[in-house]
Amino acid sequence: MIKHDSAPPPRPKRPQDADPWEDGMSGVIATVSVVLIVAGTIYDTVRLLTPAERRCPPLARLRGRRAALEAAECRLAGLRLRGRIDAADYRRRMTGLAHGRRTAPADPKPTRRM
Predict the structure, then answer these.
(1) Residue 41: what pLDDT?
(2) What is the predicted pLDDT for the residue at 10?
(3) DSSP secondary-structure letter at 16?
(4) What is the DSSP code string of 31-85?
């Protein structure tokens, strides 16, 4: 007669013995990874296909510097008519426009209006 001193072979895992984190988490990690990669690909594709500027370009690029100076002059006249700036500030800014500057230089001493 043959004696067997070895232990019995380990029994296979049954479904109730399986660790739920072992199989489920690897699926979740894979799903999240794929979703992030697809979202990044869609974002990059849309960004490359849409125009770079979401708003209209400034007037100076559309119709030239003279048109931009004229528009600045109209805005300045509107400010003066609505009483937002005084006569001295209007004159200083208009002088700047006449010399080709769309923005006025900083005022050496700011005045307070009451």
Answers:
(1) 94
(2) 73
(3) G
(4) HHHHHHHHHHHHHHHHHHHS-S-SSPPPHHHHH-HHHHHHHHHHHHHHHHHTTSS
